[in-house]
Structure formats: C-alpha cells, structure tokens
Amino acid sequence: MRFVSRAAAFAAVLGTFGGMISTVHAQQTSSVPDAPAPQSATPLTDMSGPITPGIGASANSGPSGQNQVPSSSSDQGVQPAAPAAHDQIQSTPPDMPSAQELGTILHMNVTYVEVPVTVKDSKGKLVSGLTWRDFRVFENGTYEPLKEFFVDPFPLSMAFVIDQSVTSDVMQRVNDSLGAIQGALTPYDEIAIFSYSNGAQERTGFTGAQSSRVPAVLALTKETGREEMVPYNSGPMAGCNVHVNGNCADPNLQPGRSTGSGPFITIPKEIHTLNDAILAAAKELSTRPQGRRRIIYVVSDGKESGSKASFRDVVRYLQTNNIAVWGTLVGDSARWGEGYISRFHMPFQMYDNMLVKYTSLTGGSLDSAKGLNGLEKSYAEIAEQARVQYTLVYASHESIYDSKFRSIDVRVERPGLEVTAKRGYYPSAEEVQ
Questions:
Q1: Do 383 and 424 sit in the same domain of this protein?
Q2: Residues 142 and 218 in one domain
Q3: What is the full per-residue pLDDT of the chain (433 aa) written as tens digits?
Q4: 34 within a domain of the structure (yes/no)
Q5: Distance of alpha carbon 201 from its chain centroid, rounded?
Q6: What is the rounded distance in angstroms from the CA atom of residue 319 to the CA atom of residue 297?
Q7: 261 in any annotated domain
Q8: At 200, which CATH number?
C-alpha cells in the first residue's frame, strides 16, 4: 500500500477543481453571441402599402422584386435580387376602372319620347289586343317609326287632389267616397294627397297605396264645403246675407262702416284655386323615378278663380315632366247638358270647367259622377285606364337644343276607335345620368 502525504493530496484536489472552473467559464463565454451589425435606413421605395412610389399598385412585391418586409442579407444568408431592367415592356394592358370607381357621371343626349295612349270603342270600353303595327305617330307632322312598344301595366304614382270649395251637399258625397280610392290601387302603386279651396295644401307626400297611413290622412282631409247662397246687392233682401267666418262679407254693413258708406254692396268672388293645386301636385310628381306612370287625379267641379299660377304655365310644366291629369267631375259640371255648357268661358266671369282642358292637353281622361256609387266606380275605372295604357316610344327628329313645343298626333289604323293621347310636349332639360 502506497501512502501519500496530506500536502500532496490537497494540491491534487485544488488542481482538479481549478480545471473544472476554467472549463465552465470557457463554455459560458462561447455561448454569448456577437453584437448585431448596424443596419442601414430602410429606403422609401421599400415601404409597404397599396401603392409603391415609382411602380404603382402591387400585391406582394416591391420595385426590385423582393419582399416588402425589409430584412438583413446577413441574417438570411441570401443576396438581394438584382434590380429590374428599366427598358422592360408591359405585356398586359392595365385594368380600366369603371365610372363609379372614378366618381364621374356620363351624360348622354336622349331623343326617345314616351307616349301613353288609351284606345276606346264607340261604347267607351277599353280596346285590347292592338299591336305596334296598328299605331302611327306623327311629331310636328312628320311620321316617326316606333322604337319600343309596351302593353304591360305600369305602377302608378298618383297625386290625389280633392276640391273642398264645392257646396256642402257635394262635399258630403265626396267625403263618403274617399275610402274607395285605396281599393282602386295596387300594392305597387303610391299616392300623395292634396286638397284645395283658397290655396293648395299637401296632406301627405308619396306613400304606399295600401299603407295604413292613407285612410288616416283621408279621414283628416274631410271638410264641410261651402254653403250655396244667392247674394243680393240691392232691394230689401240686400242685408248682410253673405257671411265669411261669421262676419258680414261687406264691411259697409257692419257697425262703424270702416271702409266708407254707400248703398251699393260688392258681391264677394268665389275662390277656386284649381291651377295652384295642380301645380303643387305636379311639382311633387316630378321627383318620382322613371318607370312609373305619373298622373294627377282631381275630384272637382272644375271651377277656377283666384289662383296665382296661370293655366298656360301649369300646362307647360305638365307637358315637360310627362304628367297626365285625370279627373272626376262633381256638382254642376256633372249634370247632363250643364256640364257641356260649363266648358265655354264667358267674358269677365270665372272659368266654370277648366278640368276638361287639362285632361285633353295632357292625355288624361275625364269622368262625371253624381251619387256615391258613381264616384266609387269612377275611381276604379280611372285607375284601371291609367295603368293599362299602350306605351309608344319613338325617336324624335328634332334637335335636342330646341325647346319649342312639339305636337304629337297618334292614329290607329282601325275604324270606329277613339284614341286619347297627349297633344304634345316640351323637351325637358333634365340630364340623364
């Protein structure tokens, strides 16, 4: 057995422990990486986004064909791709954006004219089954070939106008019949309600014809009408027999005679603002979209007095915006014989029946009704006739820059038939988008 001294053993242990410490220090020192090399600033052309400066829009590549996310070549171990050649020729055409993407509006001049036509036989019944070969259209005396022909029914945009200046007995029948107008319309139609006496009033704008709003508005539109009185301006009966809002119509008969004295009493004029009511309805109708039949349906005695708008200006507005006036006569104008005489105007007198002129010039139709049953039937007939008209479309030969009136003459190559169409039109300055 070999004996080792204590000093020698202690020296051997220290040598072994020192070797272990040096080994661990070497391992720790080798695991620490070098500091990263400084990176250069990212160029502007390598910025990611929908549009790259100098090249335009690109999905995933930049101007040099490399990835949009900047990376160091030393980390990935690859060299950056070579820049593309500047003389490269584009092989595919670019995608042209649409007009909606650019936010532009295309304008085009349209010379097509739409003419709704109603054809009846000698008994007043609607005639169906006609084709485009049966019609001939003339504008300013020149034959115009048809470009389009429709027999399908159109949805209606109806402005319903109620005359509240009629007498109380007539107004009562009109009030009782108002509920039937909704039954004459379909769910595809729309209606706006107007009334007039001394000025036009819009009761409601356009709403669905079968909505619950319509009967509620019609119920609020009912009025009592005016009392039919025979004023005297001389004699013992010339007292204050005409009252307005509970007061005497002539202030000379009131206590104090604020406007002077004199034996002569001026009879107050009746006010029937038919022109203003039709114009107000036409302005609302002019905003309705294309593809709908624009009509104004008036229930009135046709009298006109006191309107601010003239008959000529209202007719021009109707003919410019392709609006037809239809109507049902009530009161004196609906009586046999008297209704025909009321169409003639006496000098220095109010117009007794202006409604017949509106319908004949705009291509509408006029009906007469006396009792409640006649009014309800008239509503259904008028709505049916306006919906199932023949629609003729032709291209006008006149210049688009001519704003003069253009007459229209529609003929049917069959005997014994009555053709109803508008007499003409004014070209509209409305731009078609």
A1: no
A2: no
A3: 444 455 555 555 455 555 555 554 555 555 556 666 776 665 555 555 444 444 444 445 444 444 444 444 444 444 555 555 455 555 666 655 555 555 555 555 568 899 999 999 988 899 989 999 999 999 999 999 999 998 988 899 999 999 998 888 889 999 999 989 999 999 999 999 999 988 899 999 999 999 999 999 999 999 888 776 555 555 555 556 566 666 666 666 554 444 444 454 555 677 889 999 999 999 999 999 888 999 999 999 888 888 999 999 999 999 999 999 999 999 877 776 665 566 666 665 666 788 889 999 999 988 888 788 888 899 988 988 888 899 999 999 888 778 889 999 999 988 889 999 999 999 876 544 3
A4: no
A5: 20
A6: 16
A7: no
A8: 3.40.50.410
Name the percent of the chain in helix, strand, coil, to the closest 5: 30, 25, 50
Range(s) of the domain holding residue 139: 104-153+388-433
pTM strictly above 0.90: no
Domain count, the chain: 2
Residue (of 45, 127, 140, 124) closest to 427 by Cα position: 140
Q: Answer yes or no: do 310 and 398 share one domain.
A: no
**Could you tell me if 294 and 428 lie in one domain?**
no
Sheet containing strand 424-425, strands side by side = 142-144, 135-139, 406-412, 424-425
